[in-house]
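Inputs:
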Amino acid sequence: MAEKLTGAEIVVRCIAEENVDFVFGYPGGAVLNIYDEIFKQDKFKHVLVRHEQAAVHAADAYSRSSTKIGVALVTSGPGLTNAVTGIATAYMDSIPMVIISGQVPTHAIGQDAFQECDTVGITRPCVKHNFLVKDVKDLAVTMKKAFYIATTGRPGPVLVDIPKDVTQHTCAFEYPKSITMRSYNPTIKGHSGQIKKAVELLLNAKRPMIYSGGGVVLNDAAPQLTKLVRMLGAPCTNTLMGLGGFPASDPQFVGMLGMHGTYEANMAMQECDVLFAVGARFDDRVIGNPGHFFREGRKIIHIDIDPSSISKRVKVDVPIVGYVKDVLEEMIGMIEQGEKRPDVASLKAWWTTVKDWQSKKCLAFKPAAADGKIKPQAVVQALWNATGGDAIITSDVGQHQMWAAQYYPFDKPRKWINSGGLGTMGVGIPYAMGAQLANPDATVACITGEGSVQMCIQELSTCKQYHIPMKIINLNNRSLGMVRQWQEFFYGNRYAESYMDALPDFVKLAEAYGHVGMKIEKAGDVEAALREAIKLKDRLVFMDFITDETENVFPMIPGGKGLSEMILAEEL
Amino acid sequence: MRHILSVLLENEAGALSRVVGLFSARGYNIDSLSVATTEDTTMSRMTIVTHGSDDVIEQITKQLNKLIEVVKVVDLTDGNHIERELMLVKVRAAGKDRDEMKRMADIFRGRILDVTDKSYTIELTGDSHKLDAFIAAIEPGVILETVRTGASGIGRGERILKI
Ligand SMILES: Cc1cc2nc3c(=O)[nH]c(=O)nc-3n(C[C@H](O)[C@H](O)[C@H](O)COP(=O)(O)OP(=O)(O)OC[C@H]3O[C@@H](n4cnc5c(N)ncnc54)[C@H](O)[C@@H]3O)c2cc1C
Ligand SMILES: Cc1ncc(C[n+]2csc(CCOP(=O)(O)OP(=O)(O)O)c2C)c(N)n1
Ligand SMILES: [Mg+2]
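Outputs:
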């Protein structure tokens, strides 16, 4: 006979069964029974955040920066609504995670009860799936399904809403070892015929180009991708979400592509004859206007686990639905077993063209402004030097995010943690919390702006409580820089509400939370300050870099334009 | 182009709202939707009539398949199929209209379900075009009320949608 447990005990046991180390959460009435059980156990640790949004972001980063899964726990009503931004952020970037929310007792549902909200309804459009558990007998199976759905197929957040009375009721507990669902069977093995076609196209290409994205990182397929790219000898670009999926220091890497991608990556996307998209979704920030992106005769191969990602914005010639890791492995095997090799002469000519584009040096910038003001790009480069390029970098959203992506080259996956799809300001600090807890020995730095950092600044208190020694690199340009840049380019220099007035003294603020604060105002002091901060291994250091507020992100593709219509720094 | 999609899905609370939410969130059209449980009561079958370009219909099908509770999706308009919709129409049936309405109901093989000295309630089944044609054929002024179920569809012959 299986033992009888309360719903609350069951929740805690299920979390433990899934080998979860940390639950990020915030208590409230509807989840008090669950918290009482958390108090009594020692299988996992609970991290008390200061705002539910941060709980979800931290759990999300825990997933992004490791191969484990993040779990967040929030109470009903306001607890859940505070969590929604975090859930939508994870959803847009296909991050596996489980969110558990408390709900009013089943008999009170629909009565406008205290702290009631329609959680399943509110979150439906921003979760992979959600459940309302009305009977304690369904609880264990539902928890198992939640973890299963979150981590298989195209990953994503799954929410389980649990009414308070369900956490009190008892039933026999048995955690299912595995689960099958007749309505959920993602196609995971790519079609061999299609894979063969893809290999033939690539081996016969004169100007092949490889464009890889978040799918490679999510599927831990970087080794396979790297091997195949080297076999093919083609240039390779990564999306913002795919950075680290192919080593940035490899000579075949041509940088990030897209709105703020490199000249060479964007030109190669346009001019190639065979484009190989690997776990990337032809996002509008990547290819711009699909009409401009279209090229007669260019063949497109696309691997994705989600059929709806394929031919959504761009027509594809060879679609392959499956896990990228397995498909890439099959491709490598086919090439190894076959006779055919890439056409060296054509590749040589193609690389001559690519190198010509590279010689534009589109990321070049003046290291210090004439007045000695700090250039934000230089701070990021100095951080790379000071950390040996091996830190985990989180970022917020804005210009600083793009500079982090452009000037901190990543050689490994899961080192770059940012919000790409939703572009959520405020993720930086909670992302660094989740990443640091998942990787206790790593150096974790959060590259942020004075706008974004204030959106979850309360988490400095959480960092103090749990001794999270992140380094916060605040690229303080006294403006909502990314907004200011658009206003400069497209709104006739009318800077509507993009100037950040009345900024706090960040050094004092950091100190008030019990951390170390530093303010750096001279270009010459940047690298030394960073080295000093990194030496403070067990302290959180908030570094406020006063940067040149006129600096803009280049290259840039204006909205609605095509990939070859970039604005470069020197053109202004 | 008009398409009729048949969707087999788990008969679970909230499954319907996921389908409807998907259409509104992604800006797809629903011309009609009908749903009820099947002979296996754990499963529901839904018929959605929609329209859009081939690309849009392809995305709708893929997005429906992505819903965790959806078991199968078939575009009935891809092959031979039967489509039926039920309509109840209450019409004014007094004076000279009374005989005329009876005649129209007969022509369209409708049945008069309810009679008062001033009105008839007519039941009509057929594909949606036939029901449209009936509405067009009678004088708009005599229509008191109409209610339609939306189309249900099924493949012909060996085309079977089952798990
Ligand atoms: C201010 C700002 C500026 C930006 N500028 C740029 C820019 O210049 N360049 C840029 O690239 N992005 C930019 N972005 C990010 C952009 O909005 C998108 O988030 C990003 O481009 C999407 O990356 P992706 O195509 O790799 O897809 P992701 O969102 O990472 O999606 C991954 C894809 O892989 C698939 N997948 C997942 N798992 C697997 C698996 N196991 N096997 C196969 N397939 C799988 C998924 O189904 C999905 O289609 C910017 C964002 C912001 C906020
Ligand atoms: C929650 C949220 N609100 C608004 C925006 C729109 N937005 C994008 S970038 C940006 C400015 C960010 O300013 P800051 O953090 O100082 O970064 P900077 O661009 O100056 O480096 C804004 C307001 C957003 N992405 N997220
Ligand atoms: Mg700023």
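Remarks. The first helix of chain A runs from residue 7 to 17. Chain A touches chain B through 17 residues (CB under 8 Å).
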